[in-house]
Amino acid sequence: MTVSAILVNYNDRSHLGPCLDSLWPEMSGPGDEIIVVDNASTDGSREMLAAGYPGVRVLALAENAGFAKANNLGIRESRGGYLFFLNTDTIVRPFAVRRLVATLESQPGAGACAPALVHPGGRFQVSFGGEVNFFGQIVQKTILNPWSRRSVPRRTKPHDAAWLSAACLLARREAVDRVGGFDEAFFIYFEDIDLCRRIREAGWRLIFDPRVQIQHVGGATTSSRLRRSRLEYRRSQLRFYDKHASAVSRSLLRAVLRTSLAWKSARGEFRDAEGREIRRLYRAMLRRKEKSA
User: Fold this and answer.
1) What rounded mean pLDDT belongs to the chain?
2) pTM value?
3) Domains of the chain, with CATH numbers?
4) b or e along 122-153 (b: 16 or more beta carbons within 10 Å of the residue's beta carbon)?
């Protein structure tokens, strides 16, 4: 089956070139394709693609549509039986794509699989996990994440997971189409966990394969806007909880966010103009979610 690699780019020219250079040799099958959906970049990404990557199909958007919507556009415009979602701040190691394809082909009931993600310095990232709810996330962050970073390098067999990171994710088109693709109400963050949950609810398994490794910088396009990115993270987290979590989890999350907002305000973290706007948006977000829950 053919593979369609879909990359969403937003002002990440510095990583996009090396990523495509590493990906291109992997897309050697008949009908394989690389699609870059550009979210209105202004850093010269489009010019670089036009000049140096004529074999890459570019879908140029007039505005930043977000990660989920841009990926869905790439899905609609692609033709591969396998969909390979890939962040622009990754380096694809030799044979990684075909190894992931082999993993899916050996697991008929699997709808998607993902590799281990490794920082450039060699430290392993946490790119899979269990059920996402208030208590589950506490356990994940305090116990499972530290344990996974130490244990993943020693693992030699694929295993099931409740969610996989879309920083690098290979999925069967059939599974993605069955659940309707990404939920475009998520602008960024949690859209991959939501997609994975719906794929599982449709009867497919998710496989994490530690034998395959991809280098991933992480946060390349959000590091320059940390406060805004944290706001978007919380906005998507609340949406995911409203969609999938229990009333107890939703109430506890909102209580924690209100307490955190009050504490940060007391410490003076929102004194500048941007901070005051961030605080206003947090408050509006919490009020809106409470009314819609």
Assistant:
1) 93
2) 0.92
3) 3-216 (3.90.550.10), 223-292 (no CATH)
4) eebbbbbbebbbbebbeebeeebeeebeeebe
